[in-house]
Design goal:
Elements: H1 11-20, E1 28-32, H2 39-44, E2 48-53, H3 57-67, H4 81-86, H5 95-99, H6 112-130, H7 136-151, E3 193-196, H8 200-203, E4 211-214, H9 223-226, H10 228-235, H11 262-273, E5 278-284, H12 291-301, E6 308-314, E7 328-336, H13 359-363, E8 373-376, E9 392-396, H14 400-411, H15 414-427, H16 435-447, H17 455-463, H18 489-504, E10 506-510, E11 525-529, H19 552-567, E12 571-580, E13 583-584, H20 586-593, E14 598-602, E15 610-616
Parallel strand pairs: 1-2, 1-4, 2-3, 4-5, 8-9, 8-11, 9-10, 11-12
Antiparallel strand pairs: 5-7, 6-7, 12-13, 12-15, 14-15
Helix pairs in contact: 3-7, 3-10, 6-7, 11-12, 11-18, 12-18, 14-17, 15-17
C-alpha cells in the first residue's frame, strides 16, 4: 500500500548494512521501533527475532500480519476466507457505510457499495475471531489484508487526511478482498514476534533487543491525521468523528517526533537509553533534524570508530499534488553503542579550563562512589560532576551567574529552553560577528537588575560572544565582545544531552566560597577540586571581574582545605597544573613533598603545553597508577 516514508525500496540497503556489520544469522533480536507498514521488519525476519512498535495500532496489525503470513493455514475456518468473502455481494450498513460514503454524509472516501462491503468484511473477520475460528496470527493477517484491500479503492490522494471531491477511477471499481502478501512467495518465519503500541521513548528502556532500527517521522506531517481512517478500521470502535473530514480525535495519535526540537530531544533520549548494542537509523535529507546534529548525537554514544553514514538515493512517495523532479536521498546511520559508563556528556558552556576531554582519564582514578555524594566544588561548566555515576551531586561555584546558568539546564523544560533561545536570536537578529545585534542583546541583558536576570537570556548572549566565554566586569555586567560563533547543531546537541542528564541526576546547587563547605562534607562524601591554576590566567581568576581572584593566599587555603578533608578521612581529588610553558609551581611541589598524597600525570589535551596532574589521598582503584 501507499505509505508516507515507506522503506520498501530501502530494505536491500538496510540488509546490506547489517550484513557488512556481520549482524545477520546470530539469533539477535531486531527492534523496529517505528514499524509503519513493517517493510523493514518483514525484510529482516529471516535473520532475527522481531520486536515491532508503532503508536498507531493499524500499523502494528498490518506489519504483524505480513511477518507471520507463512504461519497462516485457516485450518479451523474450513474455508478460504478470500474466496468466501469475494463470492457474495453482502453489504452491511455500518460505520463506514454511514460515515465515509455519500450516504448519511457527503464524504466521498468510498462509494456506498464499497463502504458497505468494507463493513461486511470487518464484521465477518471479527466474528470469526470471537468464535475461535481463526488464530491471532490469522486474524492479524486478515486485518492486514483488509487494510490492503481498502487502499485499492479509497478515493484519496494517497493518504486519508481528506477525500477527493470527484471520484477517481480506482475508487469506482468494486472492492476485492485480497491478501496482503502472496502466501506462495513469502519466506517461512519461525522466530519470535513481540508487539508494542507505544511512544518509543516511553518503552525504550524496557525493550530487550540487540539491534535498534529507527525510522521516525521526518517532517511535520502527523501520521495519525493522515491515516485516521485506517486506525478506525482496525480499532473498530465507532468513535466520535470530525463533521468535515470524518477523522477520529487525533490528539492521542499525535507524535512529538514531527515537531522541531522535540524530535532532537527524543532522539537523544532513545539513543542514550536503548539496551541495543547496535543502532541503525534511517533519515531523510528533507528531515527536521540535520545530518550534523544526528552525527553529533550518535557519536556521543558510539564506540570510537564505529560511526558510519551512508547516503542512498531513493524514490520519495509522491501523490498527484507533490510531483517533482527533485532527487531525494536517505541517510543510513550506524553505530555500535558504547558502554554507558564510558559515555561522556559535555557541558553546553564553553568554560575555560574545561575537563570535558579528560573525563575518561579522571574516571580511571575515582573510586566507587555510587552511594556517595560527589562534591564538585569548583563546578564551572560542570563537565566532571555531570559525568559521575553517583546517587547525589553537589555543584558549587563562587560565580552566582555560573551557578544559575548550570542550574537553568535542570530547572527549565529543555524544549521551552531551546524555544526561548531561538526566539531571542530572532528578536535581536543575532548572527556571527554581527556587532550591532550582539551589543543590543548584551546591553538589554545588562540593563536588567542582576538579581532578576534570566540565565537563559545570558546563555543566548554567551552563544554569540567571543569564543562563547563567560566574562563580567566589576559591576557584574557581561562584557565579552562579539564573536564568530553561534547556536549551531553541535551546541544544540550538547544542550540537549546535558539537559537530559542533569535532570536525571540528584544535583544540589551551592554558591559558596569553597572553605565554607567544611560544615556539610562528611566521611561518606567524595570531593573533587578543579580550582583556578596559579600558572594560568582566565577571566574567572584574574580578580578583575567582581569575583574573588586566585592568588598564593587562595592556593594556601585550598591546600589547608585538602589537609582538613584528609584529617576527616574524606577522599578527595585535585586537578591541577604543575608545569605550564616551562614554569613550575614550586609552592605546590613543596606542599606535596611533605604529604603522602599520590600525584598522577594525566594525558594532556593536544596543543596544551602543560603538565596536568591529579592529586589523591587514597589508593588508586583497580590498580591504576
Amino acid at each position: 500500500m501507499r505509505f508516507l516514508g515507506n522503506k520498501e525500496s530501502m530494505t536491500g540497503e538496510i540488509l546490506k548494512l547489517l550484513g557488512d556489520k556481520k549482524l545477520l544469522d546470530k539469533d539477535y533480536t531486531f527492534f523496529d521501533a517505528f514499524t509503519g507498514t513493517g517493510s523493514v521488519a518483514d525484510a529482516v525476519k529471516e535473520n532475527f527475532n522481531i520486536v515491532i512498535n508503532d503508536k498507531l495500532e493499524w500499523c502494528t496489525k498490518y506489519a504483524y500480519g505480513r511477518i507471520v503470513a507463512s504461519n497462516i493455514q485457516f485450518d479451523k475456518l474450513k474455508v478460504n476466507p478470500f474466496e468466501f468473502l469475494n463470492n457474495n455481494k453482502i453489504i452491511h450498513k455500518g460505520f463506514f457505510y454511514d460515515n465515509y460514503a455519500p450516504t448519511e454524509t457527503s464524504r466521498m472516501y468510498f462509494t456506498p457499495h464499497n463502504a458497505g462491503r468494507i463493513d461486511y468484511f470487518r464484521d465477518t473477520i471479527e466474528e470469526w475471531k470471537n468464535s475461535g475460528k481463526i488464530t491471532n496470527d490469522e486474524y492479524a493477517f486478515l486485518i492486514a489484508s483488509l487494510i490492503e484491500s481498502v487502499s485499492k479503492v479509497a478515493n484519496v490522494a494517497g493518504v486519508y487526511g481528506a477525500f477527493l471531491k470527484k471520484w477517481d477511477d480506482r475508487a469506482t471499481k468494486e472492492i476485492q478482498f485480497i491478501p496482503v502478501t502472496s502466501l506462495e512467495t513469502i519466506f517461512p518465519f519461525d522466530g519470535k514476534v513481540e508487539i508494542y503500541n507505544e511512544e518509543v521513548e516511553n518503552i525504550i528502556e524496557k525493550v530487550e533487543c540487540d539491534v535498534l532500527y529507527l525510522d521516525p517521522p521526518y517532517t511535520q506531517n502527523q501520521y495519525g491525521t493522515q491515516y485516521h481512517l485506517l486506525e478506525t478500521l482496525v480499532l473498530n470502535d465507532n468513535p466520535s468523528i470530525s463533521k468535515i473530514t470524518g477523522s477520529r480525535p487525533t490528539g492521542p495519535m499525535r507524535s512529538d517526533w514531527s515537531k522541531e526540537y522535540k524530535a532532537h530531544i527524543l532522539f537523544d533520549k532513545v539513543i542514550a537509553k536503548t539496551k541495543a548494542k547496535y543502532i541503525v537509523f534511517s533519515y531523510s535529507t528533507d528531515g527536521i533534524m540535520s545530518k550534523s546534529y544526528i552525527e553529533a548525537s550518535l557519536k556521543r554514544y558510539a564506540k570510537p570508530g564505529t560511526y558510519e553514514c551512508r547516503k542512498v538515493s531513493y524514490k520519495k512517495y509522491q501523490n498527484w499534488k507533490t510531483k517533482s523532479s527533485k532527487k531525494h536521498y536517505e541517510y543510513l546511520f550506524f553505530i555500535e553503542k558504547e558502554d554507558i559508563d564510558k559515555v561522556v556528556i559535555e557541558s553546553p558552556l564553553n568554560y575555560i579550563g574545561s575537563k570535558s576531554k579528560m573525563i575518561q582519564s579522571l574516571r580511571c582514578y575515582i573510586p566507587d562512589i555510587e552511594n556517595k555524594t560527589f562534591y564538585d566544588i569548583f563546578g564551572g561548566g560542570f563537565n566532571v560532576g555531570v559525568n559521575m555515576g553517583t546517587s547525589k551531586i553537589v555543584f558549587n561555584d563562587i560565580n552566582k551567574f555560573v551557578v544559575d546558568l548550570v542550574e537553568s539546564f535542570q530547572k527549565y523544560d529543555t524544549y521551552e529552553y531551546i524555544k526561548f533561545v531561538k526566539r531571542n536570536i530572532k528578536k535581536f537578529n543575532l548572527e556571527p560577528n554581527s556587532k550591532e545585534a550582539y551589543m543590543n542583546i548584551r546591553n538589554y541583558y545588562n540593563s536588567i537588575d542582576y538579581s532578576k536576570r534570566d540565565p537563559r537570556l545570558l546563555y543566548t548572549v554567551i552563544l554569540y560572544g567571543f569564543n562563547q566565554q563567560i566574562r563580567f566586569n566589576s559591576d557584574f555586567n557581561f562584557n565579552n565582545p562579539v564573536g564568530m560563533r553561534w547556536f549551531n547543531d553541535k551546541v544544540l546537541e550538547k544542550l540537549v544531552s546535558f539537559s537530559r542528564t542533569i535532570k536525571e541526576k540528584k544535583v544540589s546547587f551551592y554558591n559558596e566560597y569553597f572553605t565554607k563547605l567544611k560544615d556539610v562534607i562528611n566521611e561518606q562524601d567524595f570531593v573533587y577540586m578543579d580550582p583556578p591554576y596559579m600558572l594560568t590566567t582566565g577571566s574567572y581568576n584574574d580578580g578583575k571581574r567582581g569575583f574573588e581572584g586566585w592568588s598564593i593566599e587562595h592556593e594556601d587555603q585550598l591546600l589547608k582545605f585538602a589537609d582538613y578533608l584528609n584529617s576527616q578521612h574524606v577522599k578527595f581529588m585535585i586537578s591541577y597544573v604543575l608545569e605550564h610553558n616551562g614554569e613550575v609551581n614550586l609552592h605546590l611541589n613543596q606542599w606535596l613533598s611533605n604529604r603522602n598524597y599520590s600525584v598522577i600525570s594525566i594525558p594532556t589535551i593536544p596543543g596544551r603545553k602543560r603538565k596536568e596532574v591529579v592529586i589523591i589521598n587514597y589508593d588508586c582503584p583497580n590498580g591504576n597508577k
